[in-house]
């Protein structure tokens, strides 16, 4: 959650802002960018927004990016096996259905043209170098375009100036080992660089009685990279890149490879306006069980910000081209063509208008044109009322779409499945409202409710007698629910956070149509989730963190809900040396989080010891 315990041991030189020493009121003023593409205090964001801070990350028992996301209310994390995760928000959970959540890592999209989802096994950053993770539950299409349908996860790494000196981290347990290192150094007074490496080795999970996933699901790999930042009087420039390689053990040659590079230039034009230009190149290749998938992306965007009188304006334009390849030698299903190049262009504008001192109206729209769907209009309207310094009430209506993936339009199997070249974009109209505030100086409360109307969702119909089958857009329906989180500072050294999420779904097949997939694209989601997290900062540099989560069961096929706990006990021997022991899924020897019969394995208890050294 966006609230972290205090106080802790003194900050080192490489940690200029020790978030653990901030009060609840100060944490509410943490700057975030994801909600409006400009920095603003979290307390004034008219969205269902949460921030996982660097201090949350350092004190977490998580050793991977998806595990960290369990701390955000309303985000559903299903671990399928040792390597694969499904992460969703407000529905559509599951490995294949979770295609309505946009992942950004320092401005790079994690979107896959193959299935519109995220391959989480391609993301292995050094967790210690993440500045914060900003999570938006709800549509973000006006600013981020198609596929930001149900939420946006924005992972932001530290500026090189904030990661100076050396860091080494190592963990070892029965099922997982990790090693990470980073070194940052200055180049004069205006430039800094950091380089890092991260290695992991995760052993396979045991098979379930009903699962067809009988192959070894273990994964072993590494990721390395750099970031350089230059800050001038009016200009700043960032250049960063990563390279990664991992091995899977299902069949010889399986694994992931990739690299990326990004440049970003920002210029402060005046005290009230700025210009930002960003471009990146990204490539990955996945080989898995006789299938090969690769994606090459070029992306460039321009953004202009202006604050003038009652107006706070952000506008921009961008373009992206992708070139993908999917080869399947496992079964009869193919993409036709196997390789394709797609083009996307967009322009957007959004203005936050101060109607009065306490009331503001946000109006925005994005026009996006793509090779698949032509022009899409993505509008957004938000009203925010701040009756006092400690409270914000907001309401919104917005539209978002998921553009067709390559599977949606180009999947075929001779005699069985025909291409769906007219497959349309899936559409959402969302209605939201929420509250964020501090009822007392030691209490933080956030609440959001939503009602979503979906149309043109993916279904399967037949166009022959009965074959071939074809993907279609014949499902529609609604979801509604709520997300809440409350944090209480019980004592100066003990902070507790509780959160809950409720989801209800009601879908149907369009009159006169059929869906032979029985709603497979709608996913599998728990009706509720609860979480409780305790963080204690004890004398003599002792930190004790404990988390408890309860998740409802899934249907079709049915698996039971579960209650699990994680814990971490840390000893800071000095500012430079930390020793800790941590565990996840401590209450049971094993449990299931997914009912995906092709991929799901038992998720076992994990306990490990670790150390973190700084110099």
Q: Can you give a write-up of this model?
A:
This protein is mainly β and 615 residues long. Helix content is 4%, strand content 58%. The chain is built from 5 helices and 36 strands. It has a 22-stranded antiparallel β-barrel. A 5-stranded mixed sheet has the order 3-8-9-6-7. Strand 14 (235-248) and strand 15 (255-270) form a beta hairpin. It is globular and about 75 Å long. It starts with 23 loop residues before the first helix and ends with a strand. 46% of the residues are buried.
Note the overall shape.
Answer: globular
Count the E strands. Answer: 36
The amount of helix comes to under 10%
Ends apart, CA distance between termini: 29 Å
Strand % is over 45%
**Main beta-sheet annotation:** 22 strands, antiparallel, barrel
Low-confidence runs: 1-19
Mean pLDDT: 93
Search tags:
615 residues; mainly beta; 22-stranded antiparallel beta barrel; five-stranded mixed sheet; 5 helices; 4% helix; 58% strand; disordered N terminus
Q: Could you give a quick summary of the protein structure above?
A:
The chain has 615 residues and is mostly beta strands. The protein has a 22-stranded antiparallel β-barrel.
Write the layout of secondary structure elements.
Layout lengths: L23 H4 L3 E2 L7 E2 L6 E6 H5 L6 H4 L6 E5 L5 E5 L11 E5 L2 E2 L20 E8 L3 H4 L6 E7 L7 E9 L2 E12 L3 E12 L16 E13 L3 E14 L6 E16 L2 E16 L2 E18 L2 E18 L5 E2 L3 E16 L4 E12 L3 E15 L2 E12 L3 H5 E2 L4 E2 L7 E15 L2 E20 L6 E23 L2 E16 L18 E11 L3 E10 L10 E11 L4 E8 L5 E2 L11 E2 L1 E9 L1
Parallel strand pairs: 6-9, 25-28
Antiparallel strand pairs: 1-2, 3-8, 4-5, 6-7, 8-9, 10-11, 10-36, 11-12, 12-13, 13-14, 14-15, 15-16, 16-17, 17-18, 18-20, 19-24, 20-21, 21-22, 22-23, 23-26, 26-27, 27-28, 28-29, 29-30, 30-31, 31-32, 32-33, 33-36, 34-35
